[in-house]
Amino acid sequence: MATCQNTNVRCPFSVSRRQFLHGCACASAAALLPVLPGCVCEDGEEKETAAGPKPRVRLVFTHTGGATWPNVGYDYEGRKKALAESLAKECPGIELLPATVRNGGEAKKLLEEDKTREVDGYIVYMVGLWTGAPPLIAAAGKPTLLVDDLYAGSGEFLIQFAAARRAGRNVAGVSSSRFKDVVAAVRGFGSVKQPGKADRFAADCMAAARKRYQAAGPLETKREDRPPACDVDECLKQLRGSTILLVGRKPGGFEKAIEAAFGTKTVALDFPPLEQAHKEADAAEAERWAAQWTRGAEKVVEPSAEEIRKSAAMYVGMRKLMEQHQARAITINCLGGFYGGRISAYPCLGFCQLNNDGLVGACESDMRSTFTMLVMSFLTGRPGFISDPVLDTSRNQIIYAHCVAPFKVYGPSGPSNPYHIRSHSEDRKGAALRSLMPLGRMTTTVEVDPPRKQIVFHQGKAVANIDEDKACRTKLAAEVKGDMDKLMNYWDQWGWHRVTFYGDLGEPVRQLAAKLAYEVVEEA
């Protein structure tokens, strides 16, 4: 049930003597206009005036809770309180009406109740994931602002903002680590009572937001970032002889498409064979892998030695199943299996080892990403990093976040980078990995989709390994090569996952696309 507070959220707004005098000049001009929502002071920052009635804007916080982003046990109430107070302080010219919505039913109820409240617009502040509320509010017809609280609502924000744009809705979006960018967008509601301004809210808001985006810096490519020339024909030959194990999900149209187009077979298994292989794994071999991973780690944070050993036994079990089916790749409905008690250890560390060894271990039974990793491993000899991306427009960065990542990003014969052994972030259980990947290097991010005959593609330069407790353990930040605004446009069509590879791999990707007669969709 939606929790709504009808009390107005207000706070005083203090100004300096210079700002006061400048505001008086603005007030004189206001006499010529029916409403003046704000003026621009010498520092370039808009300040609201008291002219005209305050817009009434519903501040909707969306989240579910439990084992999802940001993480289990997250202090949603504290975060919502802090955000509401900060917005009220920074936007005194707007009457904010806070509410919390946890699902589509609560969103519908709130929208129905707001028909009697003369609400002028909506701020949907996503402090968690997968409520289903944002598209319902976006479709209500009021000026709407979607905000991603970074590493909290990112997947739902990216998908729903792209969908709203594609549908031509009056919806703006903010995905920035700089709170001032959120404030500036919220202040855009100050003009919605002016004639014709409400209909232009999104266009005006996004035009102003783009001026605040951080411009891209120099993105030179180092020679070692370019792999040797690829052999597309050899890649396709290896795909014809390959098998993918799909655990915990039934195959569908995608699996049929890759077999028809490439000869790549899918073998689907339920959870019991995997859990049996895990339970029957050779104890001495599992102990050796656990010791090797622990010795190689820069540090072990949460997991116990026994938890790491269980992960090693899962790896040994996965390898046994792959050998039985002569499979080159495996992808598991890991969250469904673990949360549902169908498997008793996460496969994260095992996936990492498979990817380091030139095989493919992929998360969440995502067959498109698994197939992409398989294709690119044959094409370039390098492992992929499947992730849930986050956009930060204030830094021109895309942050690739997941609890599985290789630490031999240039392939089995390449150097290793440091890593930490952590718990799986969302539920704080099991054992997973934070890989501290090389910086200053070009990365190439792709998804290969045979049913559409398309490859989605963007590039960036790795600039930081983000240390943030919210969301997944590995967070590789890359400076985007191209147009950050364009990069917001494709998530509703391609979903949240992307697969990132080290190197300037634009030429191999285009050679593959040309051979297959596929379109390359350059999303940035």
What is the compact description of this entry?
With 524 residues, the chain is α/β, with parallel strands linked by helices.
Key terms for this structure?
524 residues; alpha/beta; Rossmann fold; L-fucose Isomerase, Chain A, domain 3; 2 domains; 17 helices; 35% helix; disordered N terminus
Write a structural description.
This protein is an alpha/beta fold and 524 residues long. The protein folds into 2 domains: 210 residues, Rossmann fold (3-Layer(aba) Sandwich), CATH 3.40.50; 293 residues, Alpha-Beta Barrel (L-fucose Isomerase, Chain A, domain 3), CATH 3.20.14. The chain has 17 helices and 22 strands. A 6-stranded mixed β-sheet has the order 1-5-4-6-7-8, with helices on both faces. Helix 2 links the parallel strand 4 and strand 5. Helix 10 packs across helix 12, helix 11 crosses helix 12 and helix 12 packs across helix 14. The longest helix is centred in the middle third of the chain and has 20 residues. The protein starts with a strand and ends with a strand. The N terminus is likely disordered.
